[in-house]
Amino acid sequence: MGVVTSNSVIRELLQGIIKERDQLRLELRVAKVAIVEMENQNIELDRLLSNAHALVMAADPRSVFATTKTSWIGMWESSPTEYPSLAPVEELFRAGQKQRALNSMPSLLKRTDLDDRHRVNGRLLYAAMLQSTGSNLTTALSYAEEALRISYEVRLHELVGKANFWRALCHLSIDEFANAKWCLALASHLSGHTTLIEVCKRIVEQQLICLPEEKRSVTPDFKFFCTTSMEVFVRSA
Predict the structure, then answer these.
(1) What confidence tens digit (pLDDT) does each residue in 128-152 have?
(2) Which helix H or strand E contains 139, and what residues bound it?
(3) For residue 232, what are the CA distances in angstroms to 33, 35, 229?
(4) Residue of 191, 185, 184, 180 whose CA lies nearest to 218
(5) Half-sphere exposure of residue 133: CA atoms within 13 angstroms, side-chain side
């Protein structure tokens, strides 16, 4: 009788082990599928980033832009003639003297003799340099937003898209993907850069897919710079 009892206990133990083994095998298959999917997403993101980088590096400001007033400083060269205060700083940054270039910006932006385009582009240049170095992304975003506010106030509509693009890059750098998505949408009207903006949009969409539903909305402090009714509509979506 004791032997029968022992065999029964052993049988139950074996069945438990088999059940646990089968469950682990199932979890392993699910994990492998998830890993493959993540690897595919990573490959796609690498491809999109490479395309974006190639587009930026291949862009020629003389052929893309008819005038320098719409040039995207930080990506393309500013004209020393139209932007005499900003061009030397940008040249320092490109030459590798990044800290020296960054240190010169606060006093430059305090100058009262700069025209509106210098005020906007100066803030965007500072935001672009900070964003590209990753030294202070919150400050970079604040300068991009300030540039956008000035653009609206003085009706420099050709710089609104440019400012929104740099806002998008700043939000993207701090993993605020929904904010970046809206900035890119607001920058879409800028002619001549549809492909680059679309590549950035796809990068953002890939990141949003990986987030839970509650993190796919704009943050409470996101600035729309548009009508109150539009902001209420978006936040309630």
Answers:
(1) 888 888 878 899 999 999 999 999 8
(2) helix 137-153
(3) 40, 39, 5
(4) 180
(5) 18
Q: pLDDT tens-digit profile of 38-93? A: 776 666 666 666 555 555 544 443 333 333 333 344 455 567 777 888 888 888 88
Distance in angstroms (rounded) separating the CA atoms of residues 1 and 7: 10
> How far apart are the C-alpha atoms of 185 and 199, rounded to whole Å?
12
Check: pTM over 0.85? Answer yes or no.
no
Neighbours of 192 (CB within 10 A): 12
172 touches 204 (CB < 8 A): yes
Task: Return the closest-CA partner of residue 224 out of 113, 111, 119, 148.
Answer: 148
Please compute Rg for the chain using Cα positions: 26
C-alpha span between 71 and 128 (Å, rounded): 13
Contact yes or no for 118/85 (Cβ under 8 A): yes
